[in-house]
Write a structure and sequence with these properties.
With about 80 residues, the chain is largely without helices or strands. It has one helix at about 40-50, and strands spanning about 5-10, 15-20. About 10% of the residues lie in helices and about 10% in strands. Strand 1 (about 5-10) and strand 2 (about 15-20) form a beta hairpin. The chain has a two-stranded antiparallel sheet.
């Protein structure tokens, strides 16, 4: 049996190999927001919501003080500094 697949099905003399889907954002597993959820549960949540990934350069402004925020922002990598 092949060892490079995550899931292998033996059907008679025919082997069907299906690679396990990689998680889109593995860092979310360690986030307190998603604590206790498995990779597949997080992936299912991502499949059910409308999300987008945004990239910001160092020093860029993500939101302004007093601005109405209508969505949840999750920092996947890097850090955010609050200036007042």
């Amino acid at each position: 049996m092949r060892r490079d697949c995550n899931i292998c099905y033996n059907i008679g003399n025919i082997f069907t190999f299906r690679k396990k889907k990689r998680m889109r954002f593995p860092v979310l597993v360690n986030s307190p927001l998603f604590k206790g959820l498995s990779d597949s549960e997080i992936e299912a949540m991502l499949d059910d919501v409308n999300y987008r990934v945004r990239f910001y350069h160092a020093g860029a402004v993500a939101a302004l003080a007093g601005e109405e925020i209508t969505s949840l922002m999750v920092v996947v990598s890097g850090s955010v500094r609050r200036d007042v």
